[in-house]
Every structure is written in structure tokens, then in C-alpha cells.
Design goal:
By secondary structure, the chain is mainly beta. The chain has no helices and seven strands.
Length: about 120
């Protein structure tokens, strides 16, 4: 089991950087060839270009991996973005492109999300 961290830029519809997003999730791996399907949650924090908190949320996804020689998997994600009071202020969705290998491998993960205000 390893915790992976994620970070990136938030872009508007024209591709301008308007903030950043970061989060982490637990990636569980096994040392033998096996398959598993488990529900996962990624917690994210969203800030604007000045570093002010815009909100936070969680992305849910189902994890399905075949552990053998490794490879790349794409995971679809979706969830709500909430303000500091817990009110839903938008939604986030995207895809997580994850590379995996042997149990000793810790390979970076790329997360692309789209945040849609209500």
C-alpha cells in the first residue's frame, strides 16, 4: 500500500491558469498476480490563482488492477466540490492515468479533472 499525491493546474475554458488542485489517495498493491475491484476515494483541495481556498471535495472511483508485469490504467472520476461550510459549489470530474508495476515500484500518477461551478 502506498499513498500517492496529485497536483496540477486549474484551467478555464480558454486554457488560462486560474488556480491549482491537489490531493492524495491510497493505492493498494499486492505482491502476487491477482485482481481486485474496490471503491476508492480521492480527496482534493481547490485554490484560485492567489492561493485562496475555493473548496474541497472527494472523487469516487472503482479500482480494477491486474498485477503481473505492470501497465497503465485509466480510471474515471467524479464528485462534488464543497466550500468551507460543506455547501456544494460545483462538480469535478476527469480521468486518472495510473502506471503500476511490481510491488517495489512507485510510479507518478497523472490526474486531469474538470471543475464545473453550479
Amino acid at each position: 500500500m502506498v499513498e500517492k499525491t496529485l497536483s496540477g493546474q486549474v484551467l478555464d475554458e480558454e486554457g488560462n491558469v486560474i488556480g491549482s488542485v491537489s490531493g492524495s489517495y491510497i493505492d493498494e498493491y499486492q505482491d502476487s498476480t491477482s485482481e481486485q475491484i474496490e471503491s476508492r476515494t480521492i480527496s482534493i483541495n481547490v485554490v484560485d490563482e492567489n492561493g485562496n481556498s475555493v473548496g474541497s471535495g472527494q472523487l469516487q472511483y472503482d479500482d480494477y488492477i491486474t498485477y503481473n508485469d505492470g501497465g497503465t490504467r485509466t480510471i474515471d472520476l467524479s464528485g462534488d466540490v464543497k466550500d468551507d461550510e460543506g455547501n456544494i459549489i460545483g462538480s469535478a470530474n476527469g480521468s486518472l492515468e495510473d502506471q503500476y508495476g511490481s510491488v517495489s515500484a512507485k510510479i507518478p500518477t497523472k490526474l486531469e479533472i474538470t471543475i464545473t461551478p453550479l
